[in-house]
Amino acid sequence: MRIRDLYDSPNPTISFEFFPPKNDEAEAVLFRDTVPGLKQLKPAFISVTYGAGGSTRDTTTRIVQRIREQHGTESMPHLTCVGSTQGMLGNFLDEILKLGFENVLALRGDPPKDQPTFQAVEGGFSYATDLIRFIRGRSQISIGAACYPEGHVEARFKHADWDIAAQKVEAGAEFLITQLFYDWSDFLDMEDYLRNKRNIKVPIVPGILPFLNAAQIKRFTSLCGSKLPSPIRKKIEQFAEDDESVRKLGVEVCTELCAKLMPRVAGFHFYCLNRVPSSAEVLRNLGLA
Ligand SMILES: Cc1cc2nc3c(=O)[nH]c(=O)nc-3n(C[C@H](O)[C@H](O)[C@H](O)COP(=O)(O)OP(=O)(O)OC[C@H]3O[C@@H](n4cnc5c(N)ncnc54)[C@H](O)[C@@H]3O)c2cc1C
Q: If we measure between CA atoms, which residue out of 127, 126, 123 comes closest to residue 91?
C-alpha cells in the first residue's frame, strides 16, 4: 500500500522506525519480542534505516521483507546517497521494486565518521533532491523525504532548508517526516512556511523520539542540531543517572508534544530505537493504542 494513501485515514497514522539489528542475535530478539509487541499497536507501517555507506543495505532489505511477509505489516526501506553511484542506487531501487515494495524514504545521509563534510562519490548524488528526481524518473514508487523543523544542522538559515524540503516535494516526494524536535512551535513555524509560503500540501509528519536516558538524548540532539528546551534539559540534569526517571520524562514530554500536534497532523512517526515500551505508553496516553 502506498504510504501517501495511508495518511488519508481519518485517524492518526502511526508508524515506527527501526535500525537494522547489529547481529543475528539482535535480529532474533527484534522478531521474537519487538515486532510482535509493536503489532499490537497496529502501526500503519514500519520503516527501516539505511546504515552509513550502504553498510546495512542487505540487512535493511531483509528486515523490511521479514516485517511485511512474516508479520503482515507494511514496511518501507530508507535509502541514502552515501557511498553509492547512480548505478548502485538504481540496483537497490530495482531490487525493492522487484520485491514488491511500494514506498521508499529517500535521503542524502550523514557523512561517514571520518569525513567532516558530505562528499558525493563520483557518479553519485550530493543531495536528497537529486536522489528523489532519480527515483521518480525511474518508477512510480511512493517517495518520502526528511524535513527539519529547526533547519538541518548544516544549513545556515532554517528557511533555506525549508525551501529544500519544498523542492523535495516538487521533485516527487509524497510525504515528509521530520527530524526529532521537542518544541512544538518549531514544527508550527516550518509547517506554516511550507503550507502558506511554498504551497506544500503533502503530509508533514512529526518524528517523535521518546528518549531513554540522559546521555543518549544529549548525543542525539547534539548530532542533529535539535535543541532541548531548557525546562526539559534541567529536569534531565536533575535526574542524571536515574535512567527510569529520564525515560518517564521522555514519555511525558512526547505525550504533551503529540497531544498539541494531534489536531493538525496526519500521523506520528516514532523513532522507537528498536524498543516498544515508551512509544506504547505515549500512544496509550493519547488514546491511540
Ligand atoms: C525521517 C528521517 C529518517 C532518516 N533516516 C536515515 C537513514 O536511514 N540513514 C541515514 O544515514 N540517515 C538518515 N537520516 C539522517 C539524514 O540522512 C541526515 O539528516 C542527513 O544529514 C541529511 O539528509 P537529507 O536527506 O535531509 O539531505 P538533504 O535534503 O540533501 O540536505 C542536506 C543538507 O544540504 C542542504 N541542501 C540540500 N539540497 C541543497 C541544494 N540543492 N543546494 C544547497 N544545499 C542543499 C540542506 O539544507 C541540508 O543542510 C534520517 C533523517 C530523518 C529526518
A: 123
pLDDT band at 115 (very low <50, low <70, confident <90, very high): confident
Residue closest to 282 by CA, chosen among 91, 67, 263, 262:
262
Domain ranges in the chain are 3-285
Q: Is 170 a catalytic residue?
A: no
pLDDT at 52 over 80: no
- Per the structure block, which three cell numbers stand in for 161? 532548508
Residues 6+ apart with CB under 8 A from 88: 54
**What Rg, from alpha-carbon coordinates, does the chain have?**
18
- 110 Cα–ligand 1 center, Å: 7
Task: Please identify, in words, the CATH class of the domain defined by 3-285.
Answer: alpha beta
CB 284 within 8 A of CB 30: no
238 CA distance to ligand 1 middle (Å):
33
Contact assessment for residue 256 and residue 286, using Cβ atoms and an 8 Å cutoff: no
Catalytic pick among 17, 74, 174, 281: 17
